[in-house]
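Hi R.,

Here's the input for the NAP complex you asked about:
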Amino acid sequence: MFVCVFVFVFGVGSGPMRHVVIHKPGGYERLRIEEAADPRAGPGEVAVEVEAIGVNYADCVVRMGLYTSAKHYVGWPITPGFEVAGRTADGDDVIAVTLFGGYASRVVVPADQVFPRPGGWTVEEAAGFPTVFLTAWYALIPCAAVEKGQTVLVHSAAGGVGGALLQLAKIAGARSVGVVGGAHKVEAARALGADAVIDKSSEDLWAAAERHAPEGYHAVFDANGIATLKASYAHVRPAGRLVVYGHHSMLPKGKGRPNWPVLAWKALRVPRFNPLEMGDSNRSVMAFNLSYLFDEKPLLARAMGELLGWAAEGRLRPPTTTSYPLANVAEAHRALETGETVGKLVLVP
Ligand SMILES: NC(=O)c1ccc[n+]([C@@H]2O[C@H](COP(=O)([O-])OP(=O)(O)OC[C@H]3O[C@@H](n4cnc5c(N)ncnc54)[C@H](OP(=O)(O)O)[C@@H]3O)[C@@H](O)[C@H]2O)c1
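And here is the predicted structure with NAP in place:
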């Protein structure tokens, strides 16, 4: 009886919205769960009752106060989060991309950032779909223009974006060599479509990379940054491209905050590429950050159209997911920052 009255009075999914708020940059203790008034959808917007939230390494960088676009678009306090899966008021199962703000039990987003949930995927798998696949799509298709028969090298191949890159390389008909940082990741990278896997914790990364592609790679996808950038470029073949989309090796693993002197030293030593040399060797370096591309609506529509089409055809497999209650968001960040995780981490509000 009490339950019936409760549901009648408050309704399903109503009540204050819960979200993660970071008031100041710092470690895991900065991730605070707070309540706020339910956001309401205005014209051209859609409200989504969130059932699962994808966690991305970028969210950790936001928490540390090092994510430039977070400062540009939001400032402090900030709720991180680029992607959710949930249900609209009309009962549609959807996924949505958010320009921050996704770590919440309810989000309101422009209608053109909301898409149908891939059929047959769990809500957690769907929540982990948009960011990594959009990143991989942009890196592999518009940037690297990878074609059938080419050979690509994918760093961090068992991670979120790395795993998506392997799958899209397969769809493009390319041969992929995945690099992972631990033996427990080798099988995951193989299962995602890597034709060869290099475990850099137990073998010489670049000797193995040369064995797998003696003439070099048509494309190398690098989010390590300083740790591998120079050698990644050296292993690009003529007419090939190095695509840079992250710099996680600038930050310590599992410490929760940057080591400022080390960070400053590494920032100074990030390789600079010389256009004169690039012209003579016919190799290009490309870089991007998707969070600055939200205004490019036709690009988002095209990317999601292609990705959801491949998901519907069963050509994309859902990421392996590990779920955490929203209240344990600090644990999820800590896990992702160890560098040991496989697939996607997901928060459940
Ligand atoms: N430019 C963009 O628009 C964009 C969009 C999304 C993601 N990203 C970037 O893509 C990268 C991957 O993101 P993700 O969310 O999919 O993460 P992830 O790949 O699931 O996890 C990060 C992986 O990076 C490697 N790693 C190396 N040094 C690390 C460190 N100091 N701390 C943590 N991990 C480290 C580890 O794999 P191995 O040891 O196996 O290499 C780790 O598993 C990140 O750099 C992220 O910022 C960029």
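One thing worth noting: The CA atoms of residues 139 and 145 lie 8 Å apart.

Cheers,
M.
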